[in-house]
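4.2 Preliminary Data

To establish feasibility before requesting continued support, the project team ran the inverse folding procedure on a target of 415 residues. The structure was first converted into the token representation described in Section 3, and no sequence information of any kind was made available to the design step. The complete token record follows.
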């Protein structure tokens, strides 16, 4: 075991303990569970003790310490839905969509996901790792310490394995890889059914090599239907994979209903839901992952976050960072959209980017909050919580720590 380290002189320590106790449901400002004039003790990358500095046990008063100079400390953000490993560029599609061409029309012309697939298949694993590591660093600079990364821009066995192996090479942040081979139907596939059956062989190899513990699928018109998805996801679940679903983004296509039936960890997007589907999702253990930056760029409707929250749903927010429908890594922008367009309160946004994101990844017992036994993943800021997800020009994060080790320091920070 390593030696403990004390982070002292914390002006305010936002722990999210209240939101954690509520399992991320119906969160208010009290659930931020802020400790004033606090200390944090870390050993072997996890929180050993935290609380008011006046209550710091004597045994820790003489160990190595680091002053945080009265600043705020927050649990690291969890971005639970990204497509961070890809090659190529789709800025031309932004112009097309801005001129009124629908997402489905762009895809039918060979654009969209298949455009990125073409570039990603050509890329070397080394180049994919290099570009993705830069994106990881950008997330760390915003206080994100846990990042889910989906495959899905390979759509053949060799390329999908290449993407997952690239994810394994990424450093500094906690990476949660997800196999999204069922992102779209590649041109060379006979049909969706045959393609999904071929993915079962890929799943067996992923399982043997331990490249991912999660499987996702895009259920939507022109991609995969819920019947095809059920057989595929059931096979994955029987192998021990956790399940997530791109559900009901562009139409009510049965994705959320299937997520509930299979007890998926999350249903992501969930824009096109009827009243009964919203209630059922809210009453389940499946987390609703909302992706407002994708809705912004696609100029579509936003999920009915208020109704979901009022029904008791657990909400997560994520960037959906990808080169097409959500080409942004800006966490503050996503949170601001959640407040402006989905009328989420600021405590609800904090919970969605911490506790909610952790639940969506099945990691609620180790990240998304600061408590004894949790990973010592946190960021340090001069900004109080009321100034987050408000002014996009602010440099909000001074330092980011993963497992108690500093992985980012801004030029404006100080020690």
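Position-by-position output of the design step:
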């Amino acid at each position: 075991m390593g030696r403990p380290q004390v982070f002292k002189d914390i002006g305010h320590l936002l722990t999210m303990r209240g939101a954690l106790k509520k399992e991320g449901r119906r969160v208010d400002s009290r659930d931020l569970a802020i400790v004033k004039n606090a200390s944090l003790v870390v050993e072997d990358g996890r929180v050993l003790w935290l609380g008011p500095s006046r209550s710091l046990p004597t045994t820790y008063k003489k160990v190595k310490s680091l002053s945080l100079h009265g600043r705020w400390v927050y649990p690291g953000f969890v971005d639970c839905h990204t497509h961070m490993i890809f090659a190529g560029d789709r800025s031309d599609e932004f112009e097309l969509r801005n001129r009124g061409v629908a997402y489905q029309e762009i895809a039918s012309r060979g654009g969209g996901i298949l455009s990125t697939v073409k570039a990603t298949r050509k890329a070397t694993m080394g180049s994919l790792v290099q570009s993705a590591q830069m994106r990881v660093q950008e997330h760390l600079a915003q206080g994100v310490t846990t990042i889910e990364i989906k495959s899905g821009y390979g759509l053949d066995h060799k390329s999908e394995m290449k993407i997952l192996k690239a994810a394994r090479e990424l450093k500094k942040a906690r990476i949660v890889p997800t196999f999204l081979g069922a992102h779209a139907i590649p041109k060379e596939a006979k049909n969706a059914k045959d393609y999904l059956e071929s993915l079962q062989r890929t799943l067996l190899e992923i399982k043997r090599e331990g490249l991912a513990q999660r499987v996702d699928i895009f259920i939507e018109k022109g991609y995969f239907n819920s019947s095809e998805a059920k057989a595929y996801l059931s096979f994955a679940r029987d192998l021990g994979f956790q399940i997530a679903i791109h559900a009901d983004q562009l139409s009510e296509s049965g994705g959320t209903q299937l997520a509930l039936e299979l007890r998926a960890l999350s249903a992501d997007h969930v824009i096109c839901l009827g009243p009964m589907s919203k209630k059922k999702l809210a009453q389940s253990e499946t987390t609703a992952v909302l992706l407002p930056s994708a809705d912004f760029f696609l100029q579509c409707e936003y999920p009915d976050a208020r109704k979901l929250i009022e029904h008791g749903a657990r909400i997560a927010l994520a960037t959906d960072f990808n080169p097409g429908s959500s080409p942004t890594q800006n966490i503050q922008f996503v949170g601001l959209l959640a407040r402006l367009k989905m009328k989420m309160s600021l405590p609800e946004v904090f919970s969605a980017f911490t506790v909610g994101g952790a639940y969506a990844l099945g990691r609620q017992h180790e990240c998304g909050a600061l408590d004894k036994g949790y990973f010592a993943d946190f960021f340090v800021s001069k900004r109080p919580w009321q100034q987050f997800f408000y002014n996009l020009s602010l440099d909000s994060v001074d330092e980011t720590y993963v497992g108690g080790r500093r992985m980012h320091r801004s030029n404006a920070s100080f020690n």
